[in-house]
Batch of 2 targets.
Target 1
Amino acid sequence: MTALDFRPAPGAAPLPRMVAAQAGAEIRAILRNGEQLLLTMIIPVLLLVGFAKAPLLNVPGARVDFVAPGVLALAVMSTAFTGQAIATGFERRYGVLKRLGATPLSRPGLLLAKTVAVLAVEALQVAVLSVVALVLGWVPHGNPVWALLLLLLGTAAFSGLGLLMAGTLRAEATLAGANLVYLVLLGLGGVVFPLSVYPEAFRPVLEALPIGALTTGLRAVLAEGSGFPLGPACVLAIWAAVALGLASRTFRWE
Amino acid sequence: MISPAVEISGLVKRYGRTTAVDGLSLRCARGEVTAILGPNGAGKTSTIEVCEGFRRADGGRVQVLGLDPGDPALRPRIGVMPQSGGVPQAIRAGEWLRLVGRFHAHPLPAAALLARLGLAEHARTPYRRLSGGQQQRLSLAAAVIGRPELVFLDEPTAGLDPQARHACWDLVGELRGAGVSVVLTTHYMDEAERLADHVVIIDHGRVVAEGAPATLTGAERQLRFRARPQLNLDELLAALPPGSAAKESPAGHYIIEGLVDPSLLATVTAWCAAEGVTTEDLSIERRTLEDVFLELTGRELR
């Protein structure tokens, strides 16, 4: 049997090492979870292929050019909001957040690790969806930096909403609620159906939703080649500020 | 001067209207094993969770290694084993241990620690598929991997089979030998008697007794024997020196307390002969920690 040296030698690892370790564990957890993979990868890819191929939509230009920005927005919502809310809700319920609080990893360090994990999974989603869309004949327009900026703002807004939910509701309620919101926003947010299919009176409301703002903004850049879409970006920034602010005040760690 | 591992004075912890900890004071010395004993609901876990920084005290003063329990500088120096849970359900045993190790500057090798606790072949098993005892051992491993100065173990052997209990006891002994301070809670008297340098018995959120196990059980000895139930003890009591006590508890089990010496033994056996009683299992014993515990905390179920 190996002799273990239990003599005290306490010390925290450097913050980057702790964050990298925690982010790695979170990424593995996301990629191993079948249900999460369904929401983050399989559904977006199926919607992309289905709506780009089948003549279900009446949109100007190539169908894939319309659908691709929508599923990119959906991908961000699935990871930053649905996946993160459910995972964090159950971590709270099983005392994982509490237990991590007794390690040298600080709470800001933990949140940083979660953000790194979400961004890494999103990068993978964007890569896969972009390749599939390009194979389907997608011709992206506009400045990719603007698109990237919108994706980041969307990530901040959806993360705030996800953490707000996970930090206040029971884990089961978060599970049900986060899936329901995913489905409702998938339908209402201009992901595959243009917002113009809804009555004129509703449109300002739908455009004020984070998913509506993200799809509208991404489509403006990637489909129409416009400059930075200030309106949708402001909507996302406000959602991000309000949701993250509320989450940081109300979050219960156990 | 080096500060004690834990120093608590007048700790109060309330949950709504319930007062779980009610002015508790105790001190755990460095390099010692301190066992906190108490019935369910006595306030053991609340006390330990305030020390770990998980809960805020409603009153009193708590210092851990000379620091406030919420001080981030404390995190690398302590190891924590919660009563249950605290591990993601899907993570593999080995991954969890390596993850916690990577938060520390000089962690123990995870593989050797897993092997030490009999978990080597479960390194790739997800946490939720481990048995209760395996989950406990993984949690214990995670508490010590960072080579802490002080370890808090909340009911470390609850639900363990005898082999795993002994493995846990050996580990605690080894920690103590390496100079680690250990604070643990337990229901098991034999565990406290075997492991602890210092035992603190708490009830209703207060300390009711403390000391080394041998001090708590005292030098007092008892004469015990078994015989047929409902013997009349009055004559025996009359023959015993003043200050002695004789009782039957439970039926057919007799306990004589007092100065147990050869003459007392002779008095008792003479009385038995006169009564025509054949005793079984006649023995002279020290009180156990369990006797002390039940005396202090009563026998009613909580």
Target 2
Amino acid sequence: MSSTADQDEQQYLLQLLQAHGQIFLGSFDIPVPRPRKRRRTDEADSNVNNASKVEDHTGSEEEWTGFANDPSDSDDDKDFPSFDDGSNDDDFTANATNSHHVPVVVFDNGQKRTNSLPSGSKTGLKAFMSSKVSKLTQDSRGIQRRSVRTLDDEDEERTNVENDAELRRLIHTKLLSGSLNPDLDLKPAQRRKALEGRLLELAGDAKLGKGERSVKFAERNKAAQKVRLGMLAKQKEREEKQLEEAKNMGNYHPAIKKLFEPSEGQQTIRKRQRGLTMGVGKFKGGVLKLTKEEISSVQGSAPPRRVLQRGNGRPGGRRK
Amino acid sequence: MALSGTALHFSTHQYLRHRLVLSVLSGKPVKIDKIRPEDKNPGLRDYEVSLLRLLEKVTNGTVIEISYTGTAVLLKPGVISGGSVIHECPPSRSIGYFLEAVIMLAPFAKSPFQLTLRGITTDDRDLSVDLIRTVTLPHLQLFGVSDGLELRIKKRGSPPGGGGEIQFLCPIVKQVKTLNFVDQGKIKRIRGIAHAVRVSPQFSNRMIEASRSVLNRYIPDIYLYSDVYKGQESGKSPGYALSLLAESTTGALHCSEAVSQPGVAPEDIALIATRSLLSEIQKGGCVDGKHQSLVLLMMVLGSEDVGRCRMGEPTPRTIQFLRDVKEFFGTSFKIVPANPSEPTSGGLLFSCYGTGYMNINRSIA
């Protein structure tokens, strides 16, 4: 008696295992080998009686849901069959059982596991549990579309940014300051200037691509006044000509005005504020004038960006 | 009384809420009598009185007269003022009872609502705050009430002790949009919230497991969240509940919930909720039974255009609501089977001509 029960159970388990294995194989798009399938159906044939007893859907369901371990005591399973009957033949059952004797029902609980701990569950949870109703519905409409879009867009965005950075680096290290290249046959003085400029760039004293220029500028300052003025005049003339040419060629646009503006030197001159200062604002005509930013900066939460700007913008104030 | 001649007249305590709401919205006085005259304890219940008090708080100039025995009420509505209001709900009814009424009024207030309600957040008679947040308020979005619509569940409170607290924020609108919602779509996702307060937190996981055992075979996109409230936030009494909602491809929402009962396992509670969700879905339509009257009211108040919505069978409450709407606004609905080929299934198509209700209370900023 007990031995037959053992056999039943063993066979039942074996069937489950095989059905599960087929589902697993099915997920790889490999055609299921014939003999195996036949053997399985043979087995199903051989013990139709046993199997039909064991393969009650309720039983197999318990196997997988796991909250009603003891079939005898819980009354939940009484309710299951009503739902089972309708859904036996849908996708959730093992479709490999085309033998019309004993359907082996295997719930693919592997999928269930991944569902309960999905990768995007955190955002989903946040959106769903948010008190804001707009977020709640945004989740229902947006998230999937957004996730698809972000995959593409983010990739493109990132490669674009990377390419930009790469191009900029190339231009400034290879093309312009490529004056270090031995093939160019530079004179030693020129090479020295290029190298110094490059060093300044690397040290962060000069902006990328402006190193050599700043070296030349410093050197120029040593010249006599008359010469210096001449050089400045010439440079100005050259810049104007360049701008004119760019305009004629159609390369100019107000958006890139900065590129054609006279480079360093002139811009750094700042109008010094005369008279009394109160630390913040402008004192003019007996009135202390405060900008909105200045007011917000003393009212608690000032954005950090603002602080940085002040540090850079008003060195005089800081010195006091 | 000069006004009582023009006041609309109703009887019995049934449908008190939506009659009061319709009165406030339409500005027509309403007289309700024969409130439980044969009862051992005649007259208004404490929660009904509390609702009247809440209406008085959120409006300005409302006159409420309750007869000596409490079996008759006269309401002369004022303007809906909104603003920040705090209200204690009695433990005999959950917050949902009060909130449902307020949600109908809130978009038409003078200033945006900031309502704080304290009491029971989930019980078996009214919508729980979870469903109001996840289902009722999204329905308002169909009508263009969306920015700043918010429901914060600060504390949960189970019956009988209560001790929950919610905050409801609602923007104001000039006019609600006309609804045209006839495609019910197919269910694409199921969401749910299981919560358990002052009992083992494992209960919510057990409910989720049990509910999944039924739902998993229909669609794969099921997330059931377990919402944890601890300590002070968990109210005064123990309890747990599962609320479920199913959303279709077109955004139609169906919901159900089940609340803990003494001596019943959490799995059974979850199964009750799950079954009722399935039967709710079976009824079809773009709006589920509990939200029919809200959607129909908003359709009536919509701009002067034909609004259409597909729904399942109207509930008795909805039927009475439609009758009352006809009295207050003079609007009647055209109800036809959605697909004439098979009139018994496929739901009904409700269509009406909006009254073009403008929010006259709105402060011009």
